[in-house]
Amino acid sequence: MASPELLIEQRALTIGKWSNLFMAFAGILASWLSRSDAMLVDGLYSAVNFVSAIAAARIGARVGLPATRSRPWGHDFDEVLYVTFRSLILIGILVFAGFVSGTKIWTFFTGGDVPELVFGPIVIYSVVIVAICLALAFNYHRAYRKTGQRSAVLKTESRAAIIDGALSVGTGAALLSLPFLQDTPLGPYVPIGDAVIVVLLILVIIWQPLSSFRSTLADLSGTSAPRKTYSKVSRVARDLAKEHGYKLHRVAVLQAGRMHYAAIYIDPLKPIEAHDVDLFKDKVSGRLEDVVGPTRVEVMVTARNGLKTSPTAASA
Fold it and tell me: Any residues with CB less than 8 A from the CB of 29 and at least 6 apart, and which?
């Protein structure tokens, strides 16, 4: 039976999935009716969110499952892969939108014909989409808090909804202001105002998928968990090792989405049985569950000190 946290996550993603499908169709329809590239970008962004919600629901159901022969470390890295490829797709869409807008600007300055905008559909679309995006962002954030603020999927989707809403607000407001520029020095450039707005929006929002991609790439490359996480794991391992009379050599900590991996290197300094190692491992796992969240722990019994890594050097 699924956990309450998983059910909350799945419910939020289901709502987001169908909402984004509606917004994708609405954006493409508004783009066709208004002849606006900016509306097309907005619709494509929502289409990516729809497809991502389907993938996120499946991945969220697998995260935390026990390891198998084919997946000896479980399915936890699926979440990181999801965020990575989603970021790449969004970056690709923004690059495509920049190319289309650049082509329109080039056509204008080389004497080509640029279609005039129809503003009626833009007004209706902007109001409806902004309301939906704000509701989605609130729903995702509420689910994220209810599930202990550990789901990278919900965090990513919440940010995406906010960006989608901001994109719609900025696009709609900018497009609707174009007619007021007709009698100004910028009047001759009104026909390419739509393309210029797209380029500016790209420059504003592309940092978000780039930031997510950089973060998940660090997880996939096996970079040590952030300093704060490493320090907490190290403190728990050191305290429990002291309680059991063991010598703690070092710890290694990785992060994959909401899951953490901790390798604890100890020297028992006395004869112990396998049951003692299992007991120590279970205690470490239990405490880390409360301190940093779900953690897969491996205990390495060794007399060698090995490479002694300080928290500062081991931090990402």
Answer: 43, 121
